[in-house]
Design goal:
Layout lengths: L1 H17 L3 E10 L14 E3 L8 E4 L3 E8 L9 E3 L23 E7 L4 E6 L5 H4 L2 E7 L9 E10 L4 H10 L5 H4 L5 H6 L3 H9 L14 E4 L4 E5 L6 E8 L6 E5 L4 E6 L2 E8 L2 E3 L4 E7 L4 E9 L5 E7 L2 E3 L79 H5 L12 E2 L21 E11 L4 E4 L9 E4 L4 E8 L5 E5 L4 E3 L9 E2 L1 E4 L4 E7 L5 E6 L2 H5 L3 E6 L6 H7 L10 E9 L2 E9 L3 E11 L11 E12 L4 E10 L2 E12 L3 E8 L4 E10 L4 E9 L9 E9 L5 E8 L3 E8 L1
Parallel strand pairs: 1-4, 3-8, 9-12, 11-19, 15-21, 18-20, 22-25, 24-32
Antiparallel strand pairs: 1-2, 4-6, 5-7, 7-8, 9-10, 12-17, 13-16, 13-18, 14-15, 14-17, 18-19, 22-23, 25-30, 26-29, 26-31, 27-28, 27-30, 31-32, 33-34, 33-44, 34-35, 35-36, 36-37, 37-38, 38-39, 39-40, 40-41, 41-42, 42-43, 43-44
């Protein structure tokens, strides 16, 4: 009898083990030529299994995943990060942080158990390869279907440039406004007058802000599943479609709309939420949303993804027959009031899209009936010390290494329940199905992170330091970690934590949603918290690719986590520790003078050379006369967006001087510098740009050297230039000697 019982137990164990099947995929990354914009074939693209986006990977919760990634890109390392997937840190895929890079001609087999279900994705974490095409969907089905629908489709949204992403990064470091010409979004005094926003425009300049920045890059195309316009799925009236929407854009937020009809949002970042109907969704980079859509008639309905700055969109169609288009998005008001205090106020009813007078960070969550923000506070906070939901324990088993029980709970409430309709869904609209409260007895470790940067010089950082300066955030297993993101910039930042899901504290208190990526709007504070039960070393970063690459990131390490010998070797080589060099150059040739500038730049350091030559008599085109040359060579160290110190040498009236000084940007964006030379004599410099129209500007520069020579102590140059692109300009140049005409180019 005992033998029979033993055999039965063995058979049960074998059968139980067999339930967890191994699902194997092979991904081959290559460098190939593509034409995704319809305008140009480029040779820098990186394809996965021959396509962009990469193949959709599908699993069932409980599977064992085996994914072989082969690197067939000459002379380039590659990597794959499994975004939002709970797994061991060694499988996370961030090269030099927790997973080795995949060198050219080699491969790596990723192996991990699937512990969750939902809509996720994967992408490269090497350089700017994500922008070049290395991204795809990662879909995990539940063990048992808990939602009725007839068909489902995956929607991978992305942004595409015919310009190599490495060059995009170099261009942004030359000037954060580099792509404004391409996007036709330059703010000007005439534009402000025409829009009735001159007061707010001047106010923004007075506060040394350039206005709301909705995107950095001028793209050539926006794509859904690799195409600008396509038929997603054929469907008949009455069929219920599940749409798994992924924002795989490198630096673009998208508004998602479906022919102007309400969508029932049932999941955010792969975790089911209480259903909510929305006419539009604002999706930050790396976020995912699942929606249900029941086809109403024999028609073809457009799902449109429009960029937040409304410079373009991608379309895909659901149904068949007559096409029903999504509504056109109005262009945002570039001169809207930036009243930051109003961004958190309660009681503002809005049942349409945000209007031109509303600050762009405000959303229709203010129009969601019964869900108003508390006046004067960040969403969902009772206080900084005790947010909502920490007072009592909920049903989540946080000891199971993931809290995955909550993530799978979608059947306790009907996901097809009636939901109120809101105009625009953002994270403040989301409500969890079950309480997400954390263990009440756990020690709270609170970390404040200031999201800041300098758009003009295009550097981004946390707490005033780029990742190369301050790489690690140390946490302890078993504590509640609370990150308070305070956005000091004019841009949205989608903050992503690897290896964890966190609570986003909002007005829903105990039912605050779980996410892996959260939007932090301009001049707003967002608080997240999580139970530290995934020991390892994990990235925390802004998912705007170019913000990450210029410093807005950290590595979160558990204090007791021991790096493997392989991790230790790679950790010292982490590219995030590099402070890269970038260059900027300007050449100016006019009938009355010539000028050249060159900058060699890092995050806080600049080496600047300026040389100018002009006719002593101030004559135009008279190159036979004697010309004098002057110039400066300075090393400049920036300490904030506004303040810097510099030292170097200057050439004036054929004599060299050593000099040192301080630079400061005043209200109205007036650049000033005061220096003293080795003879104890002072110099004052003032510079300001006036953007009259989108293509006409004036640069005014004034230099005063009291008692340097006694002859000509002041110099100035005032230009009136026409510039249709960032690269060149032409026009009139008035100096203290004469009026001339000329051109300038910058590169």
């Amino acid at each position: 009898m005992s033998k029979i019982l033993l055999c039965t137990l063995i058979l049960m164990l074998v059968a139980g083990h067999g339930l967890a099947k191994t699902v194997h995929y092979e991904l081959v990354i290559k460098n190939e030529s593509v034409n995704l914009s319809g305008k140009k074939t480029v040779d820098f693209a990186l394809t996965v299994n021959g396509g962009i986006p990469a193949p959709t990977l599908e699993f069932t919760e409980g599977d064992e995943a085996e994914i072989l990634v082969k690197n067939e890109v000459p002379n380039q390392e590659v990597s794959i990060h499994w975004h939002g997937i709970l797994l061991p840190p060694s499988e996370d895929g961030v090269p030099y942080v927790n997973t080795p890079p995949i060198h050219p001609g080699t491969s790596r087999l990723f192996k991990f158990k699937i512990r969750q279900n939902g809509t996720f994705w994967y992408h490269s974490h090497t350089g700017v390869q994500e922008q070049k095409g290395v991204y795809g969907a990662f879909i995990i089905h539940p063990k048992e279907k808990n939602l009725d629908y007839d068909k489902e489709a995956v929607i991978v949204i992305s942004d595409w440039s015919d310009e190599n992403a490495d060059q995009i990064l170099r261009n942004l470091r030359k000037d954060g406004d580099y792509y404004l010409y391409k996007k036709n979004s330059i703010r000007s005094y005439l534009g402000a007058i025409q829009a009735g926003g001159l007061k707010s425009h001047l106010s923004n300049e007075w506060t040394r802000m350039g206005g709301m920045d909705l995107s950095d890059v001028g793209y050539d195309a926006f794509l859904i599943n690799g195409r600008r316009d396509s038929q997603l799925i054929e469907a008949h009236p009455g069929e219920k479609i599940r749409l798994r929407i992924i924002n795989a854009g490198a630096s673009s937020y998208f508004y998602i709309s479906l022919a102007g009809l309400p969508m029932t949002v049932i999941s955010a970042d792969g975790i089911n939420i209480q259903p909510i109907q929305a006419k539009e969704i604002l999706m930050g980079m790396a976020e995912t949303y699942d929606v249900l859509f029941t086809v109403p008639e024999h028609k073809n309905y457009e799902l449109r993804a429009t960029t937040q700055d409304v410079t373009g969109h991608a379309s895909t169609w659901i149904g068949m027959g007559e096409k029903i288009k999504a509504p056109e998005k109005p262009f945002p008001n570039a001169y809207a009031s930036m009243d930051h205090e109003a961004m958190g106020d309660a009681g503002h009813e809005s049942h349409g899209a945000p209007n031109a007078e509303m600050p762009m960070s405000q959303s229709a969550h203010e129009g969601h009936e019964g869900h108003h923000m508390m006046s004067g506070q960040s969403p969902g906070k009772k206080s900084e010390s005790e947010p909502q939901g920490r007072q009592k324990s909920g049903p989540v088993d946080w000891s199971d290494q993931s809290g995955a029980a909550l993530m799978q709970n979608s059947s306790s409430q009907s996901l097809e329940a009636k939901a109120s309709i809101i105009s625009l869904l953002e994270v403040d609209s989301l409500k969890a199905i079950e309480p997400t409260t954390l263990p009440p007895g756990a020690k709270v470790h609170e970390i404040k992170l200031l999201l800041s940067g300098d758009m003009e010089r295009y550097i981004w950082h946390l707490n005033g330091k780029a990742i190369y300066e301050d790489r690690l955030l140390m946490i302890k297993e078993g504590e509640v970690v609370r990150f308070i993101f305070e956005n000091e910039t004019m841009m949205h930042h989608p903050m992503h934590l690897h290896g964890h899901f966190f609570r986003v504290l909002n007005d829903n208190g105990d039912y605050s949603p779980l996410k892996h990526t959260v939007d932090v709007p301009p001049h707003r504070t967002r608080t997240i918290e999580f139970y530290a039960n995934e020991p390892g070393q994990w990235m925390l970063h802004c998912h705007n690719l170019y913000h990450l690459k210029t410093g807005m990131a950290r590595v979160v390490r558990y204090k007791d986590f021991k790096l493997t010998p392989e991790m230790q070797r790679n950790d010292r080589l982490d590219p995030h520790l590099a402070n890269h060099f970038y260059t900027y150059s300007l050449l100016e040739a006019a009938s009355n003078h010539a000028q050249a500038q060159f900058k060699l730049m890092r995050t806080w350091d600049e080496l600047e050379l300026r040389i100018e030559s002009s006719d002593i008599e101030g004559k135009n085109f008279d190159f036979s006369e004697e010309w004098e040359t002057e110039g400066d060579l300075n090393y400049r160290r920036w300490f904030s967006r506004w303040f810097n110190l510099f030292a170097g040498g200057t050439l004036y009236h054929e004599k060299g001087y050593g000099a040192a000084g301080v630079g400061y940007i005043l209200p109205m964006l007036v650049e000033t510098a005061v220096s003293i030379n080795h003879e104890g004599k002072f110099r004052f410099d003032v510079e300001k740009r006036f953007q009259w129209t989108k293509s006409v500007f004036t640069d005014a520069e004034f230099t005063w050297r009291p008692d340097w020579k006694g002859e000509r102590d002041s110099e100035y140059e005032i230009s009136l230039m026409y510039s249709p692109t960032w690269t060149w300009a032409a026009g009139l140049m008035l100096t203290e000697k004469s009026l001339g005409a000329g051109i300038q180019t910058q590169f």
